[in-house]
Amino acid sequence: MSNTVTRDTFDQVMVPNYSPAGFIPVKAEGSRVWDQQGREFIDLAGGIAVNSLGHCHPEVVAALTEQAGKLWHVSNVFTNEPALQLASALVEKTFAERVFFCNSGAEANEAAFKLARKYAADHYSADKYEIISCTNSFHGRTVFTVNVGGQPKYAEGFGPNPAGITHVPFNDIDALKAAISDKTCAVVIEPVQGEGGVLPADPAYLQAARELCTAHNALLVFDEVQTGVGRTGSLYAYQEYGVTPDILSSAKGLGGGFPIGAMLTTAAIAKSLAVGTHGTTYGGNPLASAVAGKVVEIVSRPEVLAGVRAKHQRFVDGLNAINAKYNVFKEVRGMGLLIGAVVSDEFAGRARDFLKAAEAEQLMVLVAGLSVVRFAPSLVIAEQDIDDGLARFDAAVAAVVAASRH
What are the N6-(pyridoxal phosphate)lysine sites (modified residues) in this protein (predicted)? Predict the structure, then answer.
């Protein structure tokens, strides 16, 4: 069989649940990516907020290489040093007292939701199982997490759906107050809705959720799969808001490109996941843990977190300058280096047109829903790469406008 593969190979051998770009990246460094033809792209997508330190960061490569020469996998029949070191770092730097490792954001959320129900059953009643989530939220692709997520299109065709899940409008305190009851075991919120359009929570909303959960003996769960590990300018977004959850899910940027997820919680709540109640074969894998440990160490450096805030402003100023020329965005929003440009009514539902135009300009961006262009670059992206990337995005916007207005 030939070793030569092209984009056409995808359509011949892969399940068709994705529609990837027309080029295949083969090499990358920092925020620059090269495809099979040697063309250089600027990466403002970050693997969907995963490549927190860009591509092939030398310290992270060294951590992976060193661990690869020592120990790859032993399963959770045993523990290992990198997992214990990573868990210790997360406990030291957050509200958490206990950590559960897995492989993805969906698994971290699955563990969080199972723990919330188990804790309620242990301490209150088997009838206290309702989970309240937000419309337009996204919490993963398992049958459980996709139903907790507030986008019904992702659950269609996979029924019957799990019971006991209620959705309320995001940022609506009154709606949450009306929905929560003594049957509620958890309220789950993304501090910034990622897939739902890069929409930050109002501080008063998160504070009200905290107070309501406490009043009803429900657990407050923050899904920080996309906002975590420096993305907002703090290690986790809850620290930015000053509202502490009972359970937090983390993944994406945690491994900087190596698959790993984590659920963080308190010692008292963690007791409900006693031996045998939940598990994972790969969770806390030494390779993943060694990489994530180095990522957390680097991201936690004050200059990195301060840089995220400065780069946020550089991005926003650049996008606003583009918008002043073309008038295509009604709002630029987000926190840190999770930024969404909401297209104007003229281009409603056409965010992907801007993504495709960016590809033609050798630029990698994202969308969040049908009407938001999303940027989630490396947290240590060079200012020159931001400027060059925005120049290419300017050209992409010009192409979309020219095709639409002439």
Answer: 252
**Residue 141 annotated as binding?**
yes
Please check if 280 is assigned to a binding site: yes
How many whole angstroms separate alpha carbon 154 and alpha carbon 141? 8
Interatomic CA distance for residues 356 and 340, integer angstroms: 16
Q: How far is it, in rounded angstroms, from Cα 96 to Cα 331?
A: 35
Report DSSP state, residue 162.
P
Residue-wise pLDDT for 48-101, tens only, equals 999 999 999 999 999 999 999 999 999 999 999 999 999 999 999 999 999 999
Beta bridge partners of 265: 98, 247
3-state helix, strand and coil shares in percent for the chain, rounded to the nearest 5: 40, 20, 40
- Cα–Cα distance for residue pair 54/65, rounded to 1 Å: 17
Q: How confident is the model at residue 164, as a pLDDT?
A: 95
For each of the domains in the chain, give its residue range(s) and CATH number, in order of start. 7-57+302-405 (3.90.1150.10), 71-299 (3.40.640.10)
- What pLDDT, on the 0 to 100 scale, is given for residue 405? 77
| Model-wide pTM > 0.85 | yes
120 CB-side CA count, 13 A: 26
**47 annotated as a binding-site residue:** no
Q: Give the gyration radius of the chain's Cα atoms.
A: 21
Q: Is-cis flag, bond preceding 58, omega within 30?
A: no
Annotated ligand binding at 225? The verdict is yes
> pLDDT for 255-310, tens place per residue?
999 999 999 999 999 999 999 999 999 999 999 999 999 999 999 999 999 999 99
Which pairing describes strands 130-134 and 184-189: parallel, antiparallel, or unpaired? parallel
List of residues 6+ apart from 192 with CB closer than 8 A: 198, 199, 200, 201, 226, 227, 232, 237, 334, 335, 338
Residue-wise pLDDT for 219-235, tens only, equals 999 999 999 999 999 99
DSSP three-state, residue 39: coil
Beta strands across the sheet bearing 32-35: 25-29, 32-35, 40-43, 363-364
Q: Residue 1's pLDDT is what?
A: 40
Contact 231, 265 (CB under 8 A): no
